Amino acid sequence: MSTCTDSNEERNIWNWKSRFVSLICHYSLELSHTMRGSRGFKLKDRCKTTQVHAYNPSSETSTSNPFPFPISKLHFPTINSILQESADSIISLSTAETFLPYGLPRTDSFEPPLELCLKSVDFVESLAELYRKIQMTQDFDKSLVYLEQYALLCSLGDPKLLRRCLQSARQHAVDVHSKVVLSAWLRFERREDELVGSSALDCIGRVVECPNAALLHGYDPNSVFDHCLCSNQISHFGNNFLSSESEEDGVVCFCIGNEEVNCIRGKIAALSAPLKSMLYGNFIESDKQRIDFTHVGISADGMRAVDFFTRTRRLDSCSPNVLLELLSFANRFCCEEMKSACDCYLASLLSDIDEALVLIDYALEERAHLLVASCLQLMLRELPGYLYNPKVLNTFCSSEARERLATVGQASFLLYYFLSQVAIEDNMVSKVTVMLLERLKECANERWQKALALHQLGCVLLERKDYKEAQHCFEMAIEAGNIYSIVGVARTKLKQGQMFLAYELINDIIIKYKPMGWMYQERSLYSLGKQKILDVNEATRLDPTLTFPYKYRAIAMVEDSQIEAAVTEINRIVDFKVSPDCIELRAWCFIALEDYQSAIRDIRALLTLEPNFMMFHGKVRADHLVELLSQHVQPWSPADCWMQLYDRWSFVDDIGSLSVIYQMLINDPGRSVLRFRQSLLLLRLNCQKAAMRSLRLARNHSTSKYEKLVYEGWILYDTGHREEALAKAEESISIQRSFEAFFLKAYALADTTLDSESSSYVIQLLEEALKCPSDGLRKGQALNNLGSIYVDCNKLDLAADCYVSALEIKHTRAHQGLARVYHLKNDRKAAYEEMTKLIDKAQNKASAYEKRSEYCDRDMANNDLSMATQLDPLRTYPYRYRAAVLMDDQRETEAVEELTRAISFKPDLQMLNLRAAFHESMTDFSRALQDCEAALCLDSNHKDTLDLYSRTRIQARQNT
């Protein structure tokens, strides 16, 4: 009996040990009911990836160790303690280390990335200089100047502003090559290739993006506004040549093999000087009626086509193969008119990338300029999908390839700037990226072009750990005028163990130039002890939008075991600037705190921003980590998700809302309305690229035509094509009346200054939208918008009704509209109280504090605006208000300083305009003009700034 009992006990112990080891390898330990209970584990199949379980054992640990983290850090329960647990107990080892196999980051192991764009030490001065350059340049030479503007404004990270630069560059382009590249670049920025069913040659109807219009040489100043005529796309290619007169003095027969082709001698001779010499000159062929063309390289069909062209000047009856023969024949005998006709017509026939890949080499060999341009256009408009196609790489990457393109006028800085940006975005450290940047450097002529190419090449080489080559590139970029490249030199010296020299380089910049946040941020990398934290804090004071200082302070707190304080520190920047690196760090902190629900929320939001995000320095898939963490939180049903979404939406918790929608999409990935709502949240968080991706997915997953049209309309609206968006909305309504179609149309129409008639029409559209089926979240938005239109029409009672109705369905932002109604009714106290309700409810409160400041006295307003600035330093109204108050108090210098501090990290149009006005009132006309020019570089049509600029120039001339 004793032996049997011992045997059973040994067997039980062995079973427990086996399962215990297995479960630890899968990041969890769950023993249910009894030691002999179920052996199944939900995550077993999902945890086979080597990423999550990767473990680099120390020298003391056997390489066969199955544990994903050091065994010494695990607290093993004893056999007796486990046997003493009740049948209903659950034993779990879900410690932070389970989900942090690579540990938390350390302050000594991370650094801010180098910016890849041109970065001026005096951005306002650079903007002003560029505006003057634009004004002094002839219209047909402005295209490259607008490209320079694009390169300069990249540091602001505003997609709409950058798109306007590209549109202006395309509008002023004269040559076919520039038009082809810029129209493809505009298409790439809209990611038109991601729309299911979209062709590379599809056109939204505007000349600036039309592939057919790009193949027409010449400058059209109104092209940015003009609609293209794609239905006539072939009419201008090779079919309208007039017959030229020539002496018809007989027939000549060309023998090709066993076939003979009769042609009119005079018309053949008129094709080129060499043929005229052959048929009428001193050559023996001039006396012959039959000429052997067997070895010339043209078939009988090709020669018949030559004859047909000489008679009609038409090519439309020729097959592509015959056209290629004609092109070769034209090159051999210098028949420029026929070559041009073949070139144009072949270019017009290209319709897909496969044809372009076949013809590109032939076109280059025959130097068919337009055919090469047409081939390139198809390649460029298929990016990034065909970037690594061997034929595409062979066309662009090598020095020899660039030289071949240059022989037909198809190699330029513009081309390689576009290609290199696509490559950097796809894979910064690839060999292809390096090669394209080297070609960009070879094409650079102007100083800014050399500076940009060398700086970007240096950044890529630094990432590839080619430190000496990177340092050389950065030093050459400095010589070309990019002071910021000194940061690159400092980094390369740090990597080569020259930390003191790196410190001296950055310290010299701080001494020589006006100190900026990025300078102190950079110097902190080479500082030690107390000086390091002083530099980090000074960087935040000068530029509160830099993410690295917040991350550094948070990680330092984690190292001191102050994880909750670290979360608070990261929240300071996440609350106004959402970036994947900060969201990831906060998720790490939540995992360390074992707050898995919050960690899952952040990782899901992170996956919304970047669907393929890899955590732990690129070692673990974020979506996989969500699956693991989800086993430790209460699951939500679809109904729970909708309830959670309503709550977070009403609390103005945008990141929480994104997380819920991500979870809902896991269960229902084809739900277009969820993708659309996702895009709205991303736009609110100023994540425009991610928002556009969600919109495209909404369109692609739509199951009905009318729904697709609505999402296509929003894509067009968000990329600045308002009229096209309205057309999509109207087409959708003609198919089926829907909430979103009416809402889109009303929204697009309201985006202008409305007169009474237009306002009435917008009201009607919103009322029609509210009659259509939709969920409460969207109806709340429609009611809020309807209230705003009523306020503009001075129909305050109707507006109040709309806002109250919106609040009843938890559209919390309607408090702001209702407060405005109270204010217009001269009830400031009620307005203040209404905004206080919004502040109490909303998680993101900066805008609420800013708005509430309008309904209280100056001291309370200052307090609210100070809080708004603290919560969101990017909001410009508080700076302008404080500056205006200081100016009213005749504290002019302080007023200018208030604006200058904000402009240094956010060169906003309104703040530049206001500072220019202050300078004008102080009779400092040179600074006033500079601010006006900088503002006009951001928006050349801003009326207030144009008026101020004109007035200041007159005053400046009068005072000289």
Overview of this structure, please?
This is Ethylene-overproduction protein 1 isoform X1. TPR repeats lie at residues 780-813. It holds the Pfam family TPR_8. With 960 residues, the protein is mainly α. Among the domains are: 251-333, Potassium Channel Kv1.1, Chain A (2-Layer Sandwich); 387-636, Tetratricopeptide repeat domain (Serine Threonine Protein Phosphatase 5, Tetratricopeptide repeat); 648-875, Serine Threonine Protein Phosphatase 5, Tetratricopeptide repeat (Alpha Horseshoe). It is built from 50 helices and 6 strands. The strands form 2 sheets. Strands 4-3-5 form a 3-stranded mixed beta sheet. The protein is globular, with a radius of gyration of 34 Å. The chain starts with a helix and ends with a helix. Mean pLDDT is 86; it is low at 1-95 and 231-248.
Task: Describe the SSE topology.
Blueprint: H1 2-25, E1 31-32, H2 50-53, H3 79-83, E2 90-91, H4 96-99, H5 123-136, H6 143-153, H7 159-171, H8 176-190, E3 251-256, E4 259-264, H9 265-269, H10 273-280, E5 290-292, H11 300-312, H12 320-332, H13 336-349, H14 353-365, H15 369-381, H16 390-396, H17 399-407, H18 413-426, H19 431-443, H20 447-463, H21 467-479, H22 485-495, H23 499-512, H24 517-524, H25 529-542, H26 547-559, H27 563-574, H28 580-592, H29 596-609, H30 615-618, E6 620-621, H31 622-630, H32 638-650, H33 654-667, H34 672-684, H35 688-701, H36 705-718, H37 722-735, H38 739-749, H39 756-771, H40 776-792, H41 796-808, H42 814-824, H43 828-841, H44 846-852, H45 858-871, H46 877-888, H47 892-903, H48 909-921, H49 925-938, H50 943-958
Parallel strand pairs: 3-5
Antiparallel strand pairs: 1-2, 3-4
GO biological process, one term: negative regulation of ethylene-activated signaling pathway
TPR repeats: 780-813
Keywords: Coiled coil, TPR repeat
